[in-house]
Amino acid sequence: MYLEVKDVKKSYGEGGSYVQVLKGVTTGVNKGEMCVIQGTSGSGKSTLLNCIGGLDTMDSGSICVDGKEIKGLSSEALSDYRRDNLGYIFQFYNLIPNLTVRENIQVCQHLTRNPLNMEELLDALGLTEHQNKFPSQLSGGQQQRCAIARALIKNPKLLLCDEPTGALDSNTSRDILVLLEKINEVYGTTMLIVTHNNAIKNMVHRVIYLKDGQIRKDYLNETRVPAAQLEDL
Q1: Which of 28, 123, 213, 229 has the highest CB neighbour number within 10 Å of its CB?
Q2: pLDDT of residue 192
Q3: Which positions ≥6 away from 55 have C-beta within 8 Å?
Q4: Rounded Cα distance, 66 and 60, in Å
Q5: Claim: this prediction has a pTM higher than 0.85
């Protein structure tokens, strides 16, 4: 498997404030799969994503990405891992307000040895005409497209999406999901999508459901629905 997670445990705090968020999570995702991670607030979804992304350290267990174990890596090695393997899309975009669309994307373009073509990416995401605008001049959907372009310019092997449609209306959410589906098909990008939206699970290859820090369901979706046909977004 491209991503292998084995018996991962993660806790926060000490004494009376101690909370175990992940309680021995084991799962895996094949190369090129789109995978949804679902669960209620506090179930451990974002913590698991952050552990896989090297943004958070696990207490114990193992996470291997493309055959490389990330537990125990130094800060420098973790930075290299994130640079060489990952793209990250956040719910609230995290764009730099005083940089244009193009400049926001260039921030990540300069971090990678093998970036995608900027002009092709702008065109594919419908951003060519907006490339010289600042984030404050964009709609929510356009800002999220910019955030996606910033993650994709690195040509990542693994795309981590934390509530990528959480701040968007249903029509814009569908547009973004159609875009992610297209990216998966064209580039073969492996994707992990953390979401509260129950409809999104219908478009992906694999579904993981977390509850109280443990996996309660982990299955392949045999009846995938194209993103454009998703209902109740």
Answers
A1: 213
A2: 97
A3: none
A4: 20
A5: yes
Helix boundaries (H) for the chain? 45-52, 75-85, 101-109, 118-124, 140-152, 170-187
Cβ 135 vs Cβ 95: under 8 Å: yes
- What backbone torsions phi and psi does residue 109 show, to the nearest 5 degrees? -60, -40
Question: Which residue matches tokens 């913590």?
Answer: 47
Structure tokens at 217: 């369901």
Torsional sign, CA 176, 36, 186, 133:
positive
Residue type, 93: Y
Q: φ, ψ for residue 173 (rounded to 5)?
A: -60, -45
User: What does the block give as tokens for 176?
Assistant: 């973004």
Q: What percentage of the chain carries pLDDT values higher than 70? A: 100
Q: How many C-alpha atoms does 35 have within 13 Å on its Cβ side?
A: 26
Question: What backbone phi and psi angles, to 5 degrees, belong to 177?
Answer: -70, -40
List, as one string, the DSSP characters of 54-119: TSS--SEEEEEETTEE-TT--HHHHHHHHHHHEEEE-TT----TTS-HHHHHHHHHTT-SSPPPHH
- Rounded CA separation 50/167 (Å): 20
For residue 22, the surrounding DSSP H or E stretch is: strand 19-29
Structure tokens at 203: 């478009």
